[in-house]
Amino acid sequence: MYARVVVFSWSYALDMKLVLAVLCLAVGASAWPQFVNDHHADLAHRQQTVNRLLYRSTEPLRFDELEAAAANFHPDADTSLYKDNGVAVKHLLKELEDHRLLEKHHWFSLFNTRQREEALMLFDVLMNCKTWDTAVNNAAYFRERVNEGEFVYALYAAVIHSNLGEGIVLPPLYEVTPHMFTNSEVIQKAYTAKMTQTPGKFRMEFTGSQKNPEQRVAYFGEDIGMNVHHVTWHLDFPFWWNDAYGYHLDRKGELFFWAHHQLTARFDAERLSNNLDVVDELYWDKPIREGFAPHTTYRYGGEFPTRPDNAKFEDVDGIIRVRDMIIHETRIRDAIAQGYITAADGTKIDIRNSEGIDHLGDIIESSLYSPNAQYYGALHNSAHVILGRQADPHGKFNLPPSCGIHGEKYPDHQPMGFPLDRRIPDERVFLSSDNNAYTIVKVYFKGEH
Known about the structure:
Layout: H1 2-31, H2 37-54, H3 64-72, H4 87-97, H5 113-127, H6 132-143, H7 148-161, H8 173-176, H9 184-196, H10 218-221, H11 224-236, H12 252-273, H13 322-338, E1 340-342, E2 348-350, H14 356-365, H15 373-376, H16 379-388, H17 417-423, H18 427-434, H19 440-444
Antiparallel strand pairs: 1-2
Helix pairs in contact: 2-6, 3-6, 4-5, 5-6, 5-7, 12-14, 12-17, 13-16
């Protein structure tokens, strides 16, 4: 009897310990950070949806769920699904119904004012969607109806800047629009391999020959990763950004300066390492010394135009004049020398302080943050346009724009890209002219001014 009692007591103790252990685990689990599996599954599903929306963007949708949304979803049926009560989606639908949008199978350029406006119409719709499902349904619907380039740009920008896109990793643009990053020879070989069902690996050569000294640094200027970095940076900090989209891009003008200065500084280092002079400025009243043949073809619209050596800048009909570039640059340099920017209302904005470089970047690019875009123009953006249109400035041959007007084959890819960046009034001119150099005391003692 005693032995049985002991056994009973021992197993009872074991049971109590087990119960106590289970309770401890339960309490610990309730206190543990909520890495819920459903969240990961939801994010994975969203990632898959974005990838499918971008899959073969020039072809119809291939996935049942998205095909159904494109066919059956009515964007303006329930305006309560949008933060702006459907204002943006109604506007885009009106433009679509009136056949005012750019047709499909046509090249797209962010620096074409009308094409950019159309892409931002779709971006505005996606940014105003309250839920993920609403955004996906709109994306699928308009993917089948708007220009492919405008759709890809709007979707990338929306995923980057909308809270709905948090956690999503966008595929690199060279996977979505490979023709914008690779030579036409490689694209043609890939087409042939696909049609003949012959697997293959193709080596992409540089655009020039050994007779061109600039080919010594082609490994840098024509690097796909570097060009993707550049276009992605401008997606993160777009010049068209309006704070009405939900937040302010802090010190955007200063970051614009910094990014382009870093690119130019690195390029100078590569040139010196290859026995070449540092890159010179671009002069509006002098010939463009270096020509460029991109060896690249649009998906639709023909080849990227070439530019011969020593071409002279010409006015681009109806868009920009060389004289305007000179005038705007002179005004910016005057502002640097005088130490202030004149705002649109006539007030003076001091640039002899820590915010000065930010204001200066805003007027040079120029972004919507520019305090006086009408007076100072858009030096950087207009330079892209005028450089990209020199192959056919008067529209005589109806050529598409060249590399200079695109972010993917950014002028980094061609010899004139870095002179264009160099032409941007260097922040070192601004800093050295009006701000005294730091002393040892100021560097080591933060309270010293």
